[in-house]
Amino acid sequence: MSESVDTYHPGLEGVIAGETAICCVDQGRLLYRGYDIADLARHASFEECAFLLLHGELPTTEQLALFKQQIDGERELPGAVVDVLRAIPRQAPMMDVLRTGVSLCGNFSSAKSQGRSSLLTRAVRVLAAVPSLIAARLRVLDGKWPLEPKPGLSHAGQFIYMAFGREPTELEERVLNLTLVLYAEHEFNASTFAARVCTSTLSGLHSSVVAAIGTLKGPLHGGANEAALSLIEKFQSSAEARRWVEEALAHKQKIMGFGHRVYRNGDHRAFILEPYVDELARMRNEQWRAEVYHAIKETVWAKKQIHPNVDYPCGLVYHFLGFPSDIFTPLFVMARVAGWCAHIIEQHVNNRLIRPRSRYTGAPARAFVPLTER
C-alpha cells in the first residue's frame, strides 16, 4: 500500500483536503477573502459579506445596490413550494423542512448551464430562498399565509418582517446581521466539505446545498446553539449551574457549545458576539440568564480550560431576540449558504472528483464456499 493510504487520520483531522481562496481559519485569525472577521463584524452588512465571498472583493455602492436588488427579486416563493410547506407534518423539524424546501426550489431554477455566471445566479436564488422558506414555514405553523417581501429591508430585517409581520428594531436588525456575518463562512467544516464533495461529481448547486444542509443537521456539526440554550434553561441560578457543570465534567460529559476542532485559544466569533448576551439580557430584564451563561462558561474554563465556540453565546442571543429554538440551525443555514455557494463555485471552476482511499480492516482474502457447504 502507498504511504498516503497507510497514514490514517480519524475524522480527517489535520488533513489538508484542498485549497481555497475563500477563508482562512487558524489560531490567530479568521479571514474572509483576506478580511479579518472582527473588521467585517464591526463594519459590514451580511449582504456585503455574501458578495465578498461569492465575488472575491467587497462591493462598490453600485454593486451592492444591484446585489440587494437581485436578492429581493428572488425572495417570493413559488405557490407550489408554499403548498408543500403546508403539507409537511407539523412535527417535522425545521431543518428537514428546509432541506426539502431548497431541493424543491431547485426545480424552479431556469439556469441550466454549469458556468460561473449561471452558478452565481443560482447562488443568489438560494440566498433569497432560505430565509423565505424559514419565514413561510413559521407563518404556516401559525395558521397564516406567508407574507410577500418588503422591498428595501436588509437581509436580516427582511427575515424578521416575513417571519413575524413587523419591521425589526435597530438592535434586532444589528444583532441578527452580526450573527449572519459571523456564521457566513468557516473553511472546510463538515457541511462545506460535503457540498464540495457533491459539487465534485458535477451534481449541481442545489444538490450540493441540500447535501450541506443534511450534514449541518447532524448534532455534532450544527445544532449546538440550540443545545447550548437548552443547557442554560435547565438552571434557575448561577450556583445551580456551577454545581451541575462540575458534576457533568467529573463524569466526562460533553458540554455543548464548548471546544472546537481547530481553535485552541478561543473562537474569535464568540468573543465578538458575547457582549450582546449581557446587553440583551438587560433589555429583556433576564439578567439571571446571563448570570447562568457566565457561570457555565467560567466553570468549564476553571475545570477544563476549554473556551466556548460561537454557538454558546448565539443560542442565548437568539432566545433574547424571540426566535423559536427550532429555527436556530436554519438561521445558521441562512448565513452559511453564502459560504457554501462560494465553495461550490470555487470547486466547480477548478474541479477534480473528490475520492479518497480507505484503510481496509476486514477479513483477509478467502475462498468462496458454496451454499450447500456452509
Description of the structure:
The structure is a single chain. By secondary structure, this protein is mainly α. The chain folds into two domains: 19-217 and 328-349, Citrate Synthase, domain 1 (Orthogonal Bundle), CATH 1.10.580; 224-320, Cytochrome P450-Terp, domain 2 (Cytochrome p450-Terp, domain 2, Orthogonal Bundle), CATH 1.10.230. Helix content is 58%, strand content 2%. It contains 18 helices and three strands. The chain has helices spanning 3-6, 37-43, 46-55, 61-72, 79-87, 94-106, 116-141, 155-164, 170-183, 190-200, 205-216, 224-232, 238-250, 268-273, 275-284, 287-304, 311-320, 328-349; strands at residues 23-25, 30-32, 35-36. The chain has a three-stranded antiparallel beta sheet. Strand 2 and strand 3 (35-36) form a beta hairpin. The longest helix is centred in the middle third of the chain and has 26 residues, at 116-141. The protein starts with a helix and ends in a 25-residue tail after the last helix.
Give keywords.
single chain; 374 residues; mainly alpha; Citrate Synthase, domain 1; Cytochrome p450-Terp, domain 2; 2 domains; three-stranded antiparallel beta sheet
Stated plainly, the CATH topology of the largest domain is called: Citrate Synthase, domain 1
Radius of gyration: 22 Å
DSSP E strands, number: 3
Q: How much strand content do the residues show?
A: under 5%
Largest sheet: 3 strands, antiparallel
CATH architecture call of the largest domain: Orthogonal Bundle
What would CATH call the class of the largest domain?
Mainly Alpha
Shape: globular
What strand line-up does the widest sheet have? 1-2-3
What is the helix tally? 18
CATH homologous superfamily designation of the largest domain:
Citrate Synthase, domain 1
Ends apart, CA distance between termini: 32 Å
| SSE class | mainly alpha
Unreliable sequence segments: none
Q: Return the average pLDDT rounded to an integer.
A: 93
Helix content: 55-70%
The SSE order reads HEEEHHHHHHHHHHHHHHHHH
* Total individual domains: 2
